[in-house]
Recover the amino acids of this structure.
């Protein structure tokens, strides 16, 4: 994963603004620091920069929980 991600998250420049929260889903996309092409029998990558819609759908519950926690619900 370290080879794929920027040294610093470019979104961090906005992290101190009101109403702005950074959510990191790297652990769901690249578990254990390794970006597999298939997770749980679902194709993860559409190309070298985009996730498949099917994989994003499998992330739904975990993503929802993180979003709700970020907004205080």
């Amino acid at each position: 994963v370290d080879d794929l991600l920027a040294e610093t998250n470019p979104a961090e420049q906005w992290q101190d603004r009101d109403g702005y929260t950074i959510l990191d889903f790297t652990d769901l996309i690249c578990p254990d620091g390794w970006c597999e092409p298939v997770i749980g029998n679902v194709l993860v990558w559409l190309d070298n920069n985009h996730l498949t819609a099917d994989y994003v759908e499998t992330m739904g519950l975990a993503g929802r929980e993180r979003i709700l926690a970020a907004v205080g619900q």
Observations:
- The helical segments are 26-29, 53-58, 60-70.
- Residues 28 and 62 are 8 Å apart (CA to CA).
- The longest strand covers residues 38-39.
